[in-house]
Amino acid sequence: MKTVLITGASTGIGEACALWLQDRGYRVFAGVRKNTDAEALQQKSKGHLTPVLLDVADEASIRKAVQFVLTQTPKLEGLVNNAGIAVAGPLEFVPLQELRRVLEVNVVGQVAVTQAFLPLLREARGRIVLMSSISGRVAAPLMGPYAASKFALEAIGDALRRELAPWGIEVSIIEPGNIQTPIWRKGIAWGEALKEQLSPDATQLYGGAIDGILRYIRGQDGRGLHPNEVAKVVEQALVSARPKTRYVVGRDARVGALLARMLPDRWVDRFIAGRRFGKS
Hints:
By secondary structure, the protein is α/β, with parallel strands linked by helices.
């Protein structure tokens, strides 16, 4: 039985991956931050899913998670670095502590977990999967902090893949587009809260842009792929004889990746302006 650790498994894509892999015979260690999340996930366990308290931004928490996993198994066949948060807002006004927080969780946290579990992965010649986003290729306005973290994660993935090649440890990056997760409803709440928090000057400058983003988010809510579609791709990355370095998931993500690769930056700017703000 192959053993995998998944971070950020409380909800959304992480939970879907944990349940999907459990149902296909994997032994899954599912990282969650709260006891209540662990209890909720335990209810869905069929005997091969074990919740693990793991906060990727807390080194002590990571050490405890490693010690716990070591009591259960001497090796890991897979590490799915899925934990992440979304921080957005106009870069001119985003609080620097919020920028630091998203980089700490989405980038530094992924490296910290990878460092901690690499001895177990090396023992099994395991694989690493990094959950990025199409935002790791295309940075939308007001999504700068989140996109910066995902662009950085893409570089981390490339460097890791090349550094770990001598030990046969494959590294794959997953780039989902619109997926049916709580992030869209959270995004609506974020946008409404952001408008209330902005100073009058910031509201005058960016209020219209935030309204445009909110219209876009409301239009996307409920229209994305089921998280299981991402879970399927994660499994492919874990089992394929020759895994891809990147997996783009969803039609919108494929369009975004194509635009980023083929079109001049100014054309991409115009396309995004039209989609998000109703401009041409």
